[in-house]
Every structure is written in C-alpha cells, then in structure tokens.
Specification:
The complex is a heterodimer.
Chain A: H1 2-13, E1 21-27, E2 30-36, H2 42-46, H3 51-64, E3 69-74, H4 76-79
Parallel strand pairs in A: 2-3
Antiparallel strand pairs in A: 1-2
Chain B: H1 11-36, E1 41-47, E2 50-56, H2 69-86, E3 93-96, H3 99-121, E4 125-126, H4 132-144, E5 148-152, E6 159-163
Parallel strand pairs in B: 2-3
Antiparallel strand pairs in B: 1-2, 4-6, 5-6
Helix pairs in contact in B: 1-2, 3-4
Classes of the chains: A alpha+beta, B alpha+beta.
Amino acid sequence: MVAEALEHLVRAIVDNPDEVSVRAKELRRGRIFEVRVHPDDLGKVIGRSGRTATAIRTVVTALAGKGGARVDFVDVDRRR
Amino acid sequence: MSGEAPPKDSAGAAVKRLEHEGDAAADFLEELLDIADLDGDIDLDIEGDRASVSIVGAELSVLVGANGEVLEALQELTRIAVLRETGERSRLMLDVAGYRADRRAALTERAQQTAARVLSSGEAESLEPMTPFERKVVHDAVAAAGLRSESEGEEPQRRVVIQPSG
C-alpha cells in the first residue's frame, strides 16, 4: 500500500508520470523506497530547498506507520 | 492544457477557476484515500478567493499528524498536483477531519485573550512558534481586536508578536 501511495503522490506532481517507478526494499533497519523519475522531473520532486521531497516523506512516513519508511530519490543520470 | 488566457476575473470566471481547482484536488485526494484504504468524504467549497477542500471522516488522524504536520505536507502536495493539472498556481486550503477549523477557533480565542492583556498592560507579548496558517489566524484576530501584530524569527520557530499600539 505504501509503495502504491508513494507512486501516486509522485505521479501527480511530475510532467512524465509514466516514467515514475518505485521499488521497495526491506532492510534489517527498515523499509526503503527508491523512487526514480524522468531526469527532467527530479527538480520537481525535490522542490525548492527540498521542500517537496520533505512533504512526500512526511506523508509516506505517516502512512507507513510503525517502523516508518525511508524514501530515496534516485538521480538516474548520475548513477550511470 | 489548452492555451486559453487566464480568466479575466469577472466573479463568475474566478468561481469557475476555483471550482476546477477543487475538482482536481478531489481527484488527487480520493485516489490517495482509496490506496491507503482510508474512509473519507471530500467536501469542496470556496472561501474568499481560495478553494477550500476538506476530507471528512472519523479515522483520519494519520493524515493530520503531530501538530498538523502531515496535513501541511499533504496540502503542499495537493497544491502542486493541482498546478500540474490546471496549469495555475493554487492557494487552496486543505482540512482533514476538522483539524484546521478546531485550531482556528482555539487560536482565535487565544489571540483575543492575549490582545486584551497587551491592551491593558501596554507591553508586547509573543506567542509560541506557529505554522503560517496559524499565524494568519492570529494576525486576523489581533487586527479585528484593533491591535497590530508581526511575525518574528525563522521557520519553524517563527512566532507572532502582538504590539500594544494600534
């Protein structure tokens, strides 16, 4: 549910919703969600001073409940 | 989006634009409620020059959070989603389970009491740190009481100071 909610939040705010992917990883320390977006949309999901990314994390952490969740926005360009 | 010019605000056009904002916000939020398996109805209204969107339901505290922080975050995301949908910046106000309405009533009362004290003592008083929404409520209540107030400090420690002179 949390991954789907996260994907919905991100898809709603980018220009290229079909290029949004969310991958959930279970680590010993908790859950991590890796979010990939079109490179042109990265600035949009991060927002001025990281404001949008913070808002996304706040909502996702609340929905995740106990144990919380980490959200990573992966810079696809830089990883290659 | 079509390339029509931003509506020249005849009242009717402004109302139409705000209704469109509300509809876009409702679509975004309804899908979120659905995914999160939360029961809530969405009420749309217009308050002054803003669209007002309320999610009403019994078990929505998860979407309010401590000190309304989840509500603020969700409002921020809803505004961005509406901007993407309509092409226009939105100043819509989101409420969840009446949180803002309750907060507004409580803050207005505090502001009135503090303003009365400042009026009789002649000394400025500062209130605890508040969100922009909360400060606006206090500023409005202080102005209605005929006094002046300003905000001081940096977020998230920004607070309202009520001044003795009108």
